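note to self: dont lose this again. the chain is below, predicted strucutre after it. 235 aa total, dont forget to put it in the shared folder this time
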Amino acid sequence: MTPRHRQDSILRILRRRGSTTVRALAHDVSASRRTILRDIAALRDEGYVIHADPGRGGGLCLDPGSVRATARLSVTEVFALVISVASMKAAGQLPFSGLADSGLAKIERSLPADKIRDLRRFLDCLYVGRLAPQVDISNLGPMDPALLPAFETAFLDRVLLAFRYRDAKGATSTRRVEPQAILVLPPLWYLVAWDPDRAAVRHFRMDRISAPHCIEGTRFQKRHVTFDDGVRPLR
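---
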């Protein structure tokens, strides 16, 4: 766990519990007491008001008025929230969709102008629809957490994306593609890309992609991609 992720976890625990101890935090995030104390000091330096009772076993609590988490959200983090909500809505599995949309709107309003601009460009690449009932999802696997950060660079900077791909038969290959869209057909997610080696648009199931990375010094132009009926852009 990186220091930033660990500190975010500490803030989340403090918000949810109201108060806790250094010892409990150390156990929850698998860190030493000294590391937790350094993290608390770093969070205070960022402006978070964290009260502490004196003594080795003293408790910690976060002043709710000091919470500013949305100001530190990256474009990728907000995009992950948006597509997760969009995916659940497309699958008909989001009972509180109005509240979710309202919360996302507040998060987006808190972003600085440059991040809003990048988020809009990212969202322009997102399409959602419903999966055909005959599609086999029995072998659905986890997605590589490196996908969205790599996608952010590839989509926004229009650079080639390389990755290892495992097809339906289990054969693996290395691909270099021009990302054009993200297609969400819950529970399956696809990268829609132009494959220069095959001179065609290809759909890559994202749970079959691994080790994604952008290729520096490359550029490509956005292409027009058509989708089946029932697939719509998110925006």
